[in-house]
C-alpha cells in the first residue's frame, strides 16, 4: 500500500481483533475525555497509551507518514493563529502573568500562553493517533455490521462503511490526476516554489470533485437497482459476534473514562493550573 493511503491494513494484532463497534465507542470516550478538560497530566497519559496502542497494532509510521505530516502542518498553523488572535488567552485562563519576552502591546510571550498552547498541542497528539488507528485497524464491512448490531440503522451503518472505503479511492484518484497533470507539463515537485505547487494542486481539485461525483452517482444507482433500504433489517457477510475481549476492552475503557473525568474535574475546574 502506498504511504499516502489511509485505509484498512489487515494484520494479526490484538487491536485488529477488537470489534469495530467497541473501537468506535472507545474512540468516542477517548475524544470526550481529551476535549472536555485541559488537565495536562490526563492528556499526557492518553498520549502514551495512544502511542502504545499504535505500536501494538503493528501499524508502521511510514504507512501513515503523509497523514501525520499534513496534520503537523495543520497543528502548527492552528497554534500560530491562536497566538495571533488571542495572545493572552492563557493569562485569562490561569489568572497570572509570567513574562518570557516583552512584546508590542498585548503581543508578549508568557509562560501561561505557552502552557495553554502546549495543552492544545497535546489534544491533537491525544486524538490523532487513535483516529488513524480506528481507520487502519477496522474493516469497513465489519465496522458497519458492528454498528448495526448495537442498534444503528443499517442505512447509516452502510454509509459509514462507504465513507471508510472511499477514503483510499479519493487519495488514489488524487495521485492519478496529479501524475496526469505532471505528464502535461505542470510541475508539482520540489523543483518549483511552494506557490506554484499550491496553484498546481488547486488544478487537481475540479477533476477530483467530478470523478468523485461520478463514482457517487454510480454507487447510488447500483444500490437503488438492488432495492437497498426496502427492508427494515438485513444480513451481513462480515458480521462478527461480540467476544469476551470486546466486553473486557469496553469495561476497562468505561472505568478509565470515569476515573479520567473525575480526576479532571475533581477540584471544580477543567484547567490544570501549575502557576498557583
Automatic annotation (TrEMBL):
Transmembrane annotation, as ranges: 20-36, 42-59, 66-86, 120-139, 247-265
* InterPro entries reported in the protein's UniProt record: ABC/ECF_trnsptr_transmembrane (IPR003339)
Domain of life, per UniProt, equals Bacteria
List UniProt keywords, sorted A-Z: Membrane, Transmembrane, Transmembrane helix
Any one Pfam family match given in the protein's UniProt record, by short name: CbiQ
Q: How does it sit in the membrane?
A: Multi-pass membrane protein
Query: What does UniProt give as GO cellular component?
Result: plasma membrane
The name on file for this protein is Energy-coupling factor transporter transmembrane protein EcfT
Q: Which compartments is it annotated to reside in? A: Membrane
